[in-house]
Structure formats: structure tokens, C-alpha cells
């Protein structure tokens, strides 16, 4: 009887709305003293809004990080900023749209958790009006298509990455980094951090939140355990 009660309580606890806890760690190297201005944790209500933003965005919503309206410059090789983003859930698939201006730096996206891989077949390069002008291998490279880690490598600073990419399979986090790229600004020893280089994430086909027992449930479990010991 007690076992049935406990299983019923556990099942009821797991049938909550699709709310997912997220955490973000912001990282920069020793040559940049960068202060992120947005919360580093929160809760997504995917029943209310199945889409959310990740990456670097002014006035961010959800897990995206912001480091101010006027970002500093990378001054040389080896400089970077990064985000390590984790979700208390396993997601299946995603349709991700590149937003903002990705004309500076190299960008690396790495899937954390699960077996998902990136499909970047719809990503290209163009001008500010999103007209496709770039030639793969000449103006840009996308390295790692079909794997869990991809890099957008700009070979000149005149055009932006744009388009859509997808995750096929499961995932539970994302590492995102901007890295100094001297080819973006030939003749200048600097490369501005992009404060609008973010992705909107939609098209998740399944969400499996990690169970997190509530305080009341833990109290009931303790009480049942105590009663069971008293009867032995």
C-alpha cells in the first residue's frame, strides 16, 4: 500500500508543466575584464513560449547573455569570450535561426549532453540586407557540419553570417564562444565583440525535464520511511 502511494506521488510530481531550469556560466580570458549584465540562471516555461534565445544579445530574454551596448575589442590572438549553457532537461531536435550581426570573430557552438549533431546546410553569408553574397571557402568556412561542434569562420569582415541551422537528436546544453579573428579586420589589430550575435531556438520536438522532487514530496517520503521503520 505504502509503495503504491509513493509511486503515485512520484508520478504526480513528474507530470508538472514543461518548465525547465537553466544556468549559464560566462567566461572570458585574462586579457579582457568583461562583466556580463544579465541573469545567469532562470526558468523557461515552454508551455507558455516554446522558443528562447541563446548567445550574446543586448537586453536578452531567457538564457542569452548581455555584456553591454558598447562592447570592448579583442586586441590580439587568443582572446575570447564564452558561455557554458546547461538545461535541466533533455531536448530532442531544434530549429535555430541566426540573429543579429555575425560579421566579427569566429563563433563556435558545441552541443553538450546527448547525441545530437548540427545541420548547417541552410547557413550562408551575405550583406546587411541578408542577400547571399559569400562564397564558401573564399569568404567563409563552416567547419564541423554533421558533428557536435561547429565553427563559423569569417574570411573577411564585409559580410554577415545568417540563415538557419538545426540540431538533429538529443542535447541538454550548449557551449558558445566568440574568438578573435584577424581576418575580419585586415589592417587593424582589433576585432569588436558582437553584442547581437545570438540564436533563437524553436522546433524542439520533445522535452524531458530532469525530475526535481518538491519539498513537500521529500517530506512525505521521509514520513513514509519513518512510519515503515516504526512498524518493523
Q: How would the blueprint of this fold be written?
A:
Layout: H1 2-14, E1 19-28, E2 41-45, E3 52-55, E4 73-74, E5 80-99, E6 106-112, E7 117-126, E8 140-143, E9 149-154, E10 160-179, E11 191-192, E12 198-202, E13 206-209, H2 215-231
Antiparallel strand pairs: 1-2, 1-5, 3-12, 4-11, 5-10, 5-12, 5-13, 6-9, 6-10, 7-10, 8-9
Radius of gyration using CA atoms only:
22 Å
Structural class computed from helices and strand pairing: mainly beta
Number of distinct beta strands: 13
The shape is globular
> Can you write the helix and strand succession as a string?
HEEEEEEEEEEEEEH
Largest sheet: 11 strands, antiparallel
**Uncertain ranges:** 1-16, 215-221
Number of helices: 2
- Could you give the distance between the termini? 15 Å
Residues in helices, as a percent range: 10-25%
Q: State the domain count.
A: 1
As a percent range, the share of strand residues is: 35-45%
Mean pLDDT across all amino acids? 81
Task: Explain what this protein looks like in three dimensions.
The chain has one domain (21-209). The chain is 13% helix and 43% strand. It contains 2 helices and 13 strands; from the N terminus they run αβββββββββββββα. It starts with a helix and ends with a helix. With 232 residues, it is mainly beta. A hairpin with a 5-residue loop joins strand 8 and strand 9.
In summary, what is this structure?
With 232 residues, this protein is mainly beta.
Supply database-style keywords.
232 residues, mainly beta, disordered N terminus
Amino acid at each position: 500500500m505504502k509503495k503504491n502511494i509513493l509511486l503515485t506521488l512520484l508520478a504526480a510530481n513528474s507530470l508538472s508543466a514543461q518548465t525547465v531550469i537553466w544556468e549559464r556560466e560566462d567566461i572570458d580570458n585574462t586579457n579582457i575584464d568583461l562583466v556580463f549584465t544579465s541573469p545567469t540562471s532562470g526558468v523557461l516555461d515552454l508551455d507558455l513560449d516554446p522558443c528562447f534565445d541563446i548567445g550574446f544579445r543586448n537586453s536578452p530574454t531567457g538564457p542569452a547573455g548581455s555584456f553591454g551596448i558598447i562592447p570592448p575589442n579583442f586586441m590580439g590572438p587568443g582572446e575570447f569570450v564564452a558561455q557554458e549553457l546547461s538545461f535541466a532537461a533533455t531536448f530532442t531536435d531544434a530549429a535555430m535561426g541566426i540573429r543579429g550581426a555575425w560579421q566579427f570573430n569566429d563563433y563556435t557552438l558545441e552541443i553538450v549532453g546527448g547525441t545530437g549533431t548540427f545541420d548547417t546546410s541552410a547557413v550562408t553569408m551575405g550583406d546587411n540586407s541578408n542577400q547571399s553574397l559569400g562564397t564558401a571557402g573564399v569568404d567563409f568556412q563552416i567547419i564541423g557540419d554533421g558533428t557536435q561542434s561547429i565553427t563559423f569562420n569569417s574570411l573577411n569582415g564585409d559580410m554577415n553570417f545568417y540563415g538557419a541551422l538545426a540540431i538533429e537528436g538529443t542535447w541538454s546544453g550548449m557551449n558558445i564562444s566568440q574568438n578573435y579573428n584577424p581576418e575580419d579586420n585586415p589592417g587593424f589589430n582589433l576585432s569588436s565583440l558582437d553584442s547581437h550575435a545570438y540564436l533563437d531556438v524553436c522546433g524542439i520536438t520533445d522535452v524531458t525535464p530532469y525530475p526535481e522532487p518538491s519539498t513537500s514530496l521529500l517530506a512525505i517520503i521521509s514520513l513514509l520511511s519513518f512510519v515503515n521503520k516504526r512498524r518493523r
